Amino acid sequence: MKIEIDPNAGFCFGVVNAINKAEENLSKDGQLYCIGDIVHNSIEVNRLNDLGLQTIEHDEFKGIKERKVLFRAHGEPPSSYRIAKKNKIEIVDATCPVVLNLQKRIKKSFRELKKVNGQILIYGKKGHAEVNGLVGQTSGKAIVIETAKDLKSVNPDLPAELFSQTTKTLDGFNLLREELQKIMKAPFKAHDTVCRKVANRVPLIKEFAQKHDVIVFVSGKKSSNGKLLFDVCKGINRNSYFISEPQDIDVSWFANAKSVGISGATSTPGWLMNEITEKIKLENKINISMSRIKKIGVLTSGGDAPGMNAAIRAVVRTAIFNKLEIVGIKQGYEGLINGDFKKMKSHDVSNILQKGGTILRSARSDEFRTVEGRQKAYQQMLDNKIDALVVIGGDGTFSGARIFTQEHDIPVVGIPGTIDNDLYGTDYTIGYDTAINTVIDAVDKIRDTASAHNRLFFIEVMGRDAGFIALRSGIATGAEAILIPEKETHAKELQAYLEKGYKEHKSSGIVIVAEGDKSGGAYTIAKEIEKEHPEYDIRVSVLGHMQRGGSPSAFDRVTASTLGVAAVDALLDDQKSIMVGMVHGDVTHVPFNKTIKNKKKVKDTYLRINEILSI
């Protein structure tokens, strides 16, 4: 089920401005008065009340002296300004500019019409704060027309000018204008003063209501704008529901819905619509799992990485938390083809958080690369009633998952597990941080012996196609040079650099080489250097698979746990063929085709840092 928040819903400029001014003054003084609710939404009013905003009525306002009082977006009549001046009240004027301009226009027209005994007509809701402020510009003499029956108050033989409350509809205003044109005998002018940002909400919300199976409209019960827009929604989509807070949600509304739209009035805060979205997601997870996803499979594929067990643990326990069955698939895609499944319980993943490797074991599967192999895997899923998969691995794992979900429409979500950190769409992959720390620990030990014997060590680290491990660990260990696949490095340049360093002050040397470096790896480049400079005492150390092992770092454990939870959440949100990643500390969803096709680039900043620090 997809959930979309209406991009046109929420606070208008006037309300945003009023709330900003209230928060600004409350942060300084801790107390502020406001005549009437600052916005027609009780939850937002309560939030501001907790910050120190006190709502008062006009009668209370008259008795306040030497205090700060906010005039909200609706505006106030001239009498309120006179009282403030008399009582030495400091006004925080948050009157909406559109309303303020309308007040000035009505005041000017009233002065002109007084000369000919004319009438000011206001299309609006009687007693509404904005309307009261508009009527105040005419010393209380304006005629408020709310419905057609109020037309009897208009004298057709006297000149008249019609204005509108800013939040009324254009249709309503145009109908009233037509009726007045029919009955008026004296000169008559109609001024369209409906706020376009508010008026345009009607056609926009009609389009939005048509797009979704269910509409949840969020508004305070006092909001006339909210009642109006909800009626529009209901007229377009009969599955429209009016709520004021998250507790009003009825989960039965979404039983057969594929898409839900969240909208609101101009007085509805964005944070409330976000909160309601999360509430709907939470309430529907169990329903979704009951109706569509009942059993999830989890597997690890490709090269193992420290932290994979933490990810498995998170997937298993999040599935159980959401009342889903969960099975572990051993030996990756090979196990999926052969039906090597194990039903997982919470205790099955106890005491594995700190372990390297993967309890499900990993294997590469040539058979899964074939149509026939994937068909066997799909049949195993059908036979065992597995509805969705979480796969933990790298780009090869995700390439297989993407093809599989295309052929058989199986929901698959990937978790990036590779020490190379070379997957597009995530800042960090599971295992990368631990692998770097393993390299750093090994290089620090090698540095000791290099210094003792004035030796030059070429240390090869993993990174067949990417130099992320080499670059970051090289900076962390103070390497004299770093060779990576992404950067052209010529042997002569390296020779000249090392010779200069040795002659000046270097007593030992460390060169970090990614295994995929274009120079041919640590042994090849070491031999070339040795031919040109036989005086060097050169050694080569290939760290190899030790980088894959070991207890995962705290960073990898937390990342794996976060992404494991996110993967199951994504499946329950009807996501498929995506990888869950981490960007700037937040979970992101990246389509498999993007993370596979796009190449993650090393940061030039790190190359420059190493160049500066290795002098």
UniProtKB/TrEMBL annotation:
Binds 1 [4Fe-4S] cluster per subunit. Its EC number is 2.7.1.11, 1.17.7.4. It catalyses: dimethylallyl diphosphate + 2 oxidized [2Fe-2S]-[ferredoxin] + H2O = (2E)-4-hydroxy-3-methylbut-2-enyl diphosphate + 2 reduced [2Fe-2S]-[ferredoxin] + 2 H(+); isopentenyl diphosphate + 2 oxidized [2Fe-2S]-[ferredoxin] + H2O = (2E)-4-hydroxy-3-methylbut-2-enyl diphosphate + 2 reduced [2Fe-2S]-[ferredoxin] + 2 H(+); beta-D-fructose 6-phosphate + ATP = beta-D-fructose 1,6-bisphosphate + ADP + H(+). Keywords: 4Fe-4S, Allosteric enzyme, ATP-binding, Cytoplasm, Glycolysis, Iron, Iron-sulfur, Isoprene biosynthesis, Kinase, Magnesium, Metal-binding, Nucleotide-binding, Oxidoreductase, Transferase. InterPro entries: ATP_PFK, LytB/IspH, PFKA_ATP_prok, Phosphofructokinase_CS, Phosphofructokinase_dom, PKF_sf. Its cofactor is Mg(2+); [4Fe-4S] cluster. GO terms for molecular function: 4 iron, 4 sulfur cluster binding; 4-hydroxy-3-methylbut-2-enyl diphosphate reductase activity; 6-phosphofructokinase activity; AMP binding; ATP binding; fructose-6-phosphate binding; identical protein binding; metal ion binding. SUPFAM superfamilies: Phosphofructokinase. CDD domains: lytB_ispH. Isopentenyl diphosphate binds at H40, H74, H128, S223, S224, N225, S267. Pathway: Carbohydrate degradation; glycolysis; D-glyceraldehyde 3-phosphate and glycerone phosphate from D-glucose: step 3/4; Isoprenoid biosynthesis; dimethylallyl diphosphate biosynthesis; dimethylallyl diphosphate from (2E)-4-hydroxy-3-methylbutenyl diphosphate: step 1/1; Isoprenoid biosynthesis; isopentenyl diphosphate biosynthesis via DXP pathway; isopentenyl diphosphate from 1-deoxy-D-xylulose 5-phosphate: step 6/6. Substrate binds at T418, I419, D420, R455, M462, G463, R464, E515, R539, H545, M546, Q547, R548. Transmembrane segments: none annotated. Allosterically activated by ADP and other diphosphonucleosides, and allosterically inhibited by phosphoenolpyruvate. Belongs to the phosphofructokinase type A (PFKA) family. ATP-dependent PFK group I subfamily. Prokaryotic clade 'B1' sub-subfamily. Belongs to the IspH family. HAMAP family: IspH, Phosphofructokinase_I_B1. This is Multifunctional fusion protein. It comes from Marinifilum flexuosum.
